[in-house]
Amino acid sequence: MDPVQLDAATKHEQILKYIEGLKIGSKISVRKIAEKLGVSEGTAYRAIKEADNLGLVSTKERVGTVRVEKKLRDNIDKLTFAEVVNMVDGEVLGGREGLQKTLHKFVIGAMQQDAMLRYIDPGSLLIVGNRNKAHTYALEQGAGVLITGGFGTSEEVKKLADKLELPIISSSYDTFTVASMINRAIYDRLIKKKILLIRDIVPDDMQVVTLKIHDKLKDWQQLHERTGHSRFPVVDEWNRIVGMITAKDMIGAEPEQSIDRRMTRNPLTASPNTSVASAAHMMVWEGIDLLPIIDGNRKLLAVISRKDVLKAMQQIQRQPQHGETFEDLIWSGFEVQRGKDGQPVFRGVITPQMTNQLGTVSEGVLTILMTQAAYHVVQDVKKGDLVMDNMSSYFVKPVQIDSRIEIRPAIIEISRKFGKIDVGIYHANVLVAKAMLTAQFIDQA
Fold it and tell me: Which of 281, 310, 302 is nearest to 444 (CA)?
């Protein structure tokens, strides 16, 4: 790294530390950062984008970029009032200082005020029409207010909202629509929360054993003897990843030969926000056993092995699942039975959600069904995790809505690392779609 690059990297980190030290709710702009810290606007812009990725700032419509409280992953299913404003195209009538507060539930105020007593508590959001008394009561109970139908509220209520720092929001949408929007957002976040990321399986205080770029073969041998490992990341003097070195790379090397002459340069890497499933696919597809985890400046944060990934994916299967993906919804309507040969057969009905504008099942849905069937038939004979890496599909005949179909998967070939599966979809015993899939199994290194 030349001095100019080093200076830029240092300034980047200084800007991030400066942003992290700002008060929650502080407005941030490229120009202000550049002037305050004496950096170029380009450097300031890149640092603000990185801060956004880290969850330190958020850009709000009609507000700009502001410092926000970094949301813990455990609280990903909780919305802030500011997010609700953007979601419902709302107007903030009062209590703007409380926009970054989170809400844990919403209450629809389609009841008498006395009946609301049992449901409104601090941290909730009351969805209601133009009922000023209800607005006041909700604020006094520590709840935010979302007024539907485009209505406003009194000046007294606005002043109370400002005093309590609790948002009161107006939206032109009706009650049912805004409730559906918020419910969908929370549901989507539950799905995201279910997705395991690399940062969820890597401890914050992980100590990574590395070699420097100018270390010798003897240094690798010492590390190998001390740790029992044979694969190590290679970093430069600024702890940036520059290569990987393994026992295979060291075959035939002289004791005083430099590591950088033997290492594999520009290794595959991942960020902490990469999903474990994506990391698993990368490691299987590329045939690597150790994956470096880096930040935005390519500084090494951690490493994960195939064993780490396999263990994490096994834990996912044992945990209760919340929220359903599109694939879950499609597959949930199919039940497994056994054919005469003992092989699993999946039967279900084509629902309206599976069809295209012509009323026939879409090719995308058929692809999902065949992939799911292949996955389940393999799981029936070989426990463990796998990734599909190739699929050739043929769509023979259209299948209309309400048709009952049968999916017949068959394992053509299976080994310790690979599998080949043939899947056919039938309607009234007539073939309508067919696929040949290959998969790789995720084994411990």
Answer: 310
Class in CATH terms, 73-194: alpha beta
229-240 confidence digits (pLDDT tens): 889 999 998 889
Contact call for residues 306 and 442 (beta carbons, < 8 A)? yes
Query: Which class for 220: exposed (0-12), middle (13-18), buried (19 or more C-beta within 10 A)?
Result: buried
**Is 299:239 a contact under the CB 8 Å cutoff?**
yes
What does the pLDDT look like over 182-194, one tens digit per residue?
877 766 666 566 6
What is the identity of the amino acid at 185? A
CATH class of the structural domain 3-66: mainly alpha
Bridge-partner residues for 258, per DSSP?
Answer: 216
Q: Residue 293 pLDDT > 90, yes or no?
A: yes
Number of Cβ atoms within 10 Å of the Cβ of 309: 26
Instruction: Count the neighbouring beta carbons within 10 Å of the beta carbon of residue 210.
Output: 18
Cα gap 394→229, rounded to integer Å: 47
pTM of the model: 0.50
Domain limits, the chain: 3-66, 73-194, 199-316, 326-442
- What is the architecture, at CATH level 2, of domain 326-442? Roll (3.10)
Rounded Cα distance between 268 and 431, Å, is: 42
**Among positive and negative, which fits the CA dihedral 117, 120, 126, 132?**
positive
> What does the pLDDT read at residue 23?
81
* Neighbour order of strands in the sheet with 27-28: 27-28, 64-67, 57-60
Pairing verdict, β 168-170 and 91-94 = antiparallel
Beta-sheet strands, E only, within 161-309: 168-170, 211-212, 232-235, 241-245, 264-265, 290-294, 300-305
Q: Which class does domain 199-316 fall in?
A: alpha beta
350 pLDDT exceeds 70? yes
Question: Is 422 within 8 Å of 436 (Cβ atoms)?
Answer: yes
> In the chain, pLDDT over 90 holds for what percent of residues?
28
> Is 130 within 8 Å of 149 (Cβ atoms)?
yes
Q: Give how far the C-alpha of residue 254 lies from the chain's centroid of Cα atoms, to the nearest Å.
A: 45
Sign of CA dihedral 426, 430, 433, 434: positive
Give me the count of residues in the chain. Answer: 445
Q: What is the 3-state secondary structure (H, E, C) of 44-76?
A: HHHHHHHHHHCCCEEEECCCEEEECCCCCHHHC
Cα–Cα dist 274/204, whole Å: 16
Query: Cα(first)–Cα(last) distance of the chain, in Å?
Result: 34
Strand pairing of 124-128 and 144-147?
A: parallel
